[in-house]
Design a protein that fits this description.
Number of strands: 12
Number of helices: 13
Shape: globular
CATH topology of the largest domain: Heat Shock Protein 90
Largest sheet: 7 strands, mixed
CATH superfamily of the largest domain: Histidine kinase-like ATPase, C-terminal domain
Order of helices and strands: HHHHEEHHHEEEHHHEHEEHEEHEE
Structural class: alpha+beta
Length: about 400
């Protein structure tokens, strides 16, 4: 059953209950002036329960509009699902156009709109004229809002995955096919060549596996982008987990890792926040020491105001080779890689920072990279904190 059908059934049940109440309270109706708002409420049995209260029980986002398409009431689900974007949706030109279609003949119209900021969202708006008995005061139409963003993300993910995979998998697949042909031909009786080629094939296969894993992670980040996280995490706990996870890698590469953080509660998806920090530390380990210098990496989390909003700044900083300024604006683009930073088989695919950007969009956060060639790079992402969120020090 669709949300609109459910709403219709609920209104029908409500009206049915009202008719029963009408008979039970018939003697009271004679004391109410005909045509008054109270009379209409008595006639449909809403003296104790209003239409707005009934709409708050719906599992779908519902909005009441007046004859000009202006929002008069939005139920709890509408506010929870769309928040500040609710006003933007109801003021969209396509929604106004669908509203104008409603008249005595056309009782139903639909609009599907796309919001690009702050994140891409696709919303379907089903409009219905309220029955005259329900059109109390200025309210004339009911809008049921359906978030189709996940469906849209899946469709785009499917097409993007095919495009990206075909683009980036072509080189390692070509290499694998070449080595297989060689092993079946001239190297069929050469054990030394077989071992050499098998090692290269294993390396290429691992590269393809990492690419597919990153593509899937990027797709998941895009799919969740329109769902605001509702959990809370402690910044100090997050930094400690990242230190424990990355300690082994840093030690194996002779990289000094330092951490510092304050215990502050941040609203967000803990797993994704950890993924962002791990990604940034991995990049620093991979590229900071490209010229052979001793690498030091620091990870910190401290309270910081951003445009008057309280939040926490997570910073990953290294003393590495740095990045030229002209590359900085493009680092979060998919598959963008800085020439000269590739490190053989360990080179990335230019997807890590694209994943970071989508995660930041979901968290209503900010991401910034500053770097000086020869001195190092600083990556900072900022997340808003909750009110009264400072925790006792662990």
């Amino acid at each position: 059953m669709t949300g609109t059908e459910f709403a219709a059934c609920l209104v029908f049940v409500w009206l049915s209950g009202g008719l029963i109440g009408w008979f039970a309270r018939g003697w009271r109706l004679s004391r109410v002036l005909p045509g008054s708002a109270r009379a209409r409420r008595e006639e449909i049995g809403t003296s104790s329960v209003s239409l707005e209260e009934m709409l708050d029980l719906l599992p779908d986002a519902a909005v009441l509009l007046d004859g000009h398409g202006a929002k008069r009431f939005a139920n709890i689900e509408a506010h929870e699902a769309f928040g500040d974007a609710l006003g933007t949706i109801m003021r969209h030109p396509d929604v106004f156009a669908a509203m104008r279609q409603l008249n005595g003949v056309t009782l139903r119209s639909t609009a599907e709109i796309v919001l690009e900021v702050p994140v891409r969202r696709v919303v379907k708006v089903d409009l219905r004229i309220l029955p005259e008995v329900l059109a109390i005061g200025p309210m004339r139409a009911l809008a049921i809002l359906t978030d189709c963003s996940e469906r849209d993300a899946v469709e785009r993910m499917r097409s993007d995955f095919v495009a990206y995979a075909s683009h980036e998998l072509r080189t390692p697949l070509t290499a694998l096919i070449g080595f297989i042909e060689t092993l079946r031909g001239s190297a069929a009786d050469d054990p030394a060549a077989q071992q050499q080629f098998l090692g290269i094939m294993a390396m290429q296969a691992n590269r393809m596996q990492r690419l597919i894993e990153q593509l899937l992670e990027l797709s998941r980040a895009e799919m969740l982008e329109h769902r605001k996280p509702r959990g809370t995490v402690d910044a100090l706990h997050i930094v400690n987990l990242v230190r424990d996870e990355m300690g082994g890698l840093c030690e194996s590469r002779n990289v000094e890792l330092k951490t510092s953080a304050e215990s502050v509660a941040v609203q967000g998806d803990g797993e994704q926040i950890i993924r962002v920090l791990v990604n940034l530390v991995e990049n620093a380990v991979k590229y900071a020491g490209a010229d052979g210098r001793a690498v030091q990496i620091s990870v910190s989390a401290t309270p910081q105001l951003l445009r008057g909003r309280p939040g926490v700044a997570f910073i990953v900083e290294d003393n590495g080779v740095g990045i030229a300024e002209e590359h900085l604006p493009r680092l979060t683009e998919r598959f963008y890689r800085v020439e000269g930073r590739r490190m053989g088989a360990s080179s990335g695919y230019g997807l890590g920072l694209a994943i970071v950007r989508h995660i930041m969009d979901r968290h209503d956060g900010c991401f910034e990279i500053t770097s000086t060639v020869g001195k190092g790079t600083q990556c900072m992402f900022w997340l808003p904190i909750l009110r009264d969120s400072r925790l006792a020090a662990a």
